[in-house]
Amino acid sequence: HDYSPVHLSSQKEEAIKEFCRMRRSIMTELKTAKQILLAFLLKQGKHYDGKSYWTGEHRRWLKDIKSQLKMYICGGIKMYNYSAKATQSLSL
């Protein structure tokens, strides 16, 4: 029998792997939150006419319509903001 050596991860390597898994999970949640928010806004008849979503201009648009649909979208925008902040803190 020929055996090959097995690499045992160090604590640092395990921490990096865990960080990467956590970051992927947060990025997935952020993408989902964005999709849910955009779908909700379309159902409410709110369509963004700008060129790209999630830009500074798009965020200003969200802020402007927030008062119109406050009770419905505050939770969604707060979820997006939380996810965005978490993502920024995880950026390498």
Strand content: under 5%
Count up the domains.
1
Helix tally equals 3
Low-confidence stretches: none
- Gyration radius over CA: 20 Å
- Mean pLDDT score, rounded? 85
Largest sheet descriptor: none
Structural class by SSE content? mainly alpha
Element order, helices and strands? HHH
Give the overall shape: elongated
DSSP, total strands: 0
Could you give the distance between the termini?
44 Å
Describe this structure in words.
The chain is mainly α and about 90 residues long. The chain has one domain (about 10-90). It is built from 3 helices and no strands. It has helices at about 10-45, 55-65, 70-90. The chain is elongated and about 70 Å long. The model has no long low-confidence stretch (mean pLDDT about 85).
What features would you highlight for this structure?
single chain, 92 residues, mainly alpha, 3 helices, 0% strand
Element layout with pairings:
Blueprint: H1 11-43, H2 56-66, H3 70-90
Task: Provide a quick synopsis of the model.
It contains 3 helices and no strands. The chain has 92 residues and is mainly α.
